[in-house]
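In the previous chapter we treated chains in isolation. Here, by contrast, the input contains two separate entities that must be folded as one system, with a combined length of 630 residues.
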Amino acid sequence: MKFSLKHIIASVCCLGGLFLAQQVNAQTQVPKTWHVEIEAGTKIGGASPLSLPVEIREIKSFRPAMPFFAGIKANYAIDQRWGVRTGLVFDGKGMKTEANVKGYKTTFNAAEDPTQNVQGYYYGDISTNVENLYLTVPIQATYELSERWNVQAGTYVSFAVMKRFYGEAIKGYMRDEDPTGDRVGIENAAYDFRGSVRNIDVGMSVGGKYRFAKRYFALAQFDYGFNNIMKTGFESISFNLHNIYMNVGLGMRL
Amino acid sequence: MNYKKLWLIPLGIVLFLASCIKDEARNMEADITSVEIAEELINAKPIINNRNVVIYIKPGAMDITHFPLEFSLTPGATVSPASGSEQDFSEPVVYEVTSEDGQFKKEYSVSLIEASVPEDFNFELYDFDTKKNWVYFYEEVVGVKQNLWASGNAGFAFTAGLNPASTKYPTQVTEDPQYVHEGKSAAYMETKSTGAFGAMFKMPIAAGNLFVGSMNVDNILSPETRFGLPFNKIPATLEGYYRYIPGEKIIDKDGKVVPGIDECDIYAVFYDRIALWKETWEDPTQPDRTWLNNDDILTSPHIVAIAQLAEGKATAGSEFVKFSIPFEMKKQVLRSDVDAFKYNIAIVFSSSKNGAIFQGAVGSKLIVDQVKVTVK
């Protein structure tokens, strides 16, 4: 068994849950007031299937691409504990992976012209690069756990401002159209699916922040995209890919 | 204590478990991967394509009406009739291979051929690939179908899209009266553009070609032409009729225009297959080779005789031009060796002479008909 990005996310969730659960001191905020925060940081995660499909035999390498976020958020305190917040976050969601696949249904295309596409089942090594930039609007409920701890949960809508999804079949072979089709060896054949990345990604977030100084805090937030990041009707990848990211960063109350 | 956040723990565990690499799925492929047949029974290594297997056997070496052919399959796949069961190979035997997962089936036509490559080729017998619609010519020798003509179509098919017309391919059959010399049809070759996909790999054109032998596309970037099949006569001349209409401008592998006018190529090579086989026994890249390839088709030391069209320039008007090219003998041959099927013949046509290095003029057309190898 190989460790994938989701193991890391999962581990962070476990630890985060334990850590958060220990903080119980009562604390209050001033009801019916606004404050604005800015925050920035890095993230780890990827465009990942919810469970690794059977076609993927081995993840040979993984690293995040454009792992950053920066945003501004307006918080409104409803009462002493509860609040809501929204804002605007600019974030990159990307990854670079290399995997060994078997019977992976896909399309290779060199140009926009769909009649030039090569469709079939691929056996061999494949690299995938995802580099998407989003403008994200979160809407979250917030809860003051203690003087230092605040937790949040809610949904978000992300609008893609830059979309990239490309890669290469590194070494392997393709069965033309179906697994009994002609077997054609492939080396370093590029594919590009940028046109099939959805413009909008909707998801949910849960997170917490820890105030370590009067105006400064550390934060962690887990984002999970509800929809496949690829458009409906896109068949080149036989499973859905979700944006799943763990964010960590620092923030400042203005 | 406030334990509300503990729900993150089960979430984390679920994600962790879900991300394990799953057990391997059952195989979807259904291939005959190799044929096990004693070398003393065969004249050339078995030709295994995606839907047929052709084995040139030594005449009289076995009773082909009761022969238990053994072959290997994709792991887990099954076949009916069984490998190793006695079959009557006086006609091609159809085997149906079923993939391990049971979802995919593929029929193979398996021929054992005792005969030599014939001497006359009229391009009247052809069929189309059931899925990709490209033409393949065959010959019938004493009632036995020989899939002896190969072309680059199988490789081109890969970039031809879904349900391509047969006229999209570089190698076609034509029934157009202006392109037929005699009978109903002729072989039509036209240099085609391979589009963006081909250009990306510096293979911007695909010359129409037709040759006696087989095509191996284990790697699309270096499709391997395997020239030649067993021939048990001593060739004297290569004859036939052709028309050639060069395309407008020659481009090279980088897509740059090259000055000059495109030329076609027509030739036949008679070579000592047994000597080639022995010499390549320990060849690291292609051991046990019983064919000539792009690199040595005109230069191999095992070539015994060559007949090549001197100039592949445009033919005048709209008439077919007859060619009759004597074989130039480079070595002595023993009649007894020829009778014992020790030699192969390759006959090659190409609509662009430098098609093998992906240089040629898109639109160059070569039509050939009524080809014949006269023998001594």
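DSSP finds five helices and 32 strands in chain B. Helices of chain B lie at 8-18, 153-156, 195-200, 273-279, 335-339. Compare these points with the single-chain example from earlier in the chapter.
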